[in-house]
Amino acid sequence: MKRETKYLAVYQRVKDDILRGALPPGSRLPSKRTMAERLGVSVVTVETAYGQLVDEGYAYARERSGVYVQPLAGLRPPAEAEVPPLTMLPEEPAGPGSPDFPTALWFKTLRRVMSEYGPRLVERSPNKGAARLRNAIAAYLLRYRGMFAPPERIVVGSGAEQLYEAVVRMLGPDRTYGVEWPSYRQIEAVYAGYGAAVERLPLGPDGIESAPLAASAADVLHVTPFHSWPTGVTAPAAKRYEYLDWARRGDRFLVEDDFDSEFAPPGKPLETLWSMDGEGKVIYLNTFSKSLAPSMRLGYMLLPERLLPRYDEVLGRYSCSVPLLEQYALAEFIADGSFERHLNRLRRRLAEPR
Taking the model in full, what pTM does it have? Predict the structure, then answer.
């Protein structure tokens, strides 16, 4: 038996005797040598166990006198009860995984990052995410999407739902949040979970229907202009300008959820609301859960400059919830072109006749 296990066994045995009253308050514990001989362990083991009891307040030491049971106010001897066996959870059945995920290349990137950055990877992440990843995302968006997204306005988070939480905490639950209907149910669940009013706005063939939008009480509108789920509706330019015009009227904001944009048809991807916005009204969200793998709980949010002070005020004291190892690995994966090559392979496969 390991020494750590032995001292814990002694500690637990004496603690149980104290709790059930076998060792009454104020009574002196057996000397360390006596207890060691009685239990067949070393004196050091007993000394460690007694020290743990003293640290936790079950006992106290008197110099040159010994260790005594600490009186515990309100202690009642527990009723004798048989402890039921601990039932372990069955392991989840192995799923099909993500057949398109570049496993070998990803783990090669992880090994390279661990070798190069070592101790830095166990530090706490900066609030908005590692600068290396935010820079890589900004360069990728400019190169692939033509989006000008300064790195200081990029916030890294652990997936879409955590970013939805950041939105409602930043803008406040006292607003009304308009959502497409039908839409991804977690959007409504997160906003409502923080106490915000949520208004469902019906989708037509080109986006949210104009009349319900105009009559809506919402002052935040969450939209998925490209491939809204589950309908697959894509908003054309006219509808996207309608959303922007709606946002310009008063203290309103658009949340652009662009989760499926990497799988746009070949050619120039659709222009984002972020790029079309000239008044700082759009919060842009995207994740890597679909483009890489569902287990990749990593996404990002682009904030208009006017919201940076509000974000810092409400959320600036928290560390980013994504480990630095994943952030550095993804930054490397994007910067060396592996991410875009992976996306190109996926797009070619999706374009093949079924």
Answer: 0.78
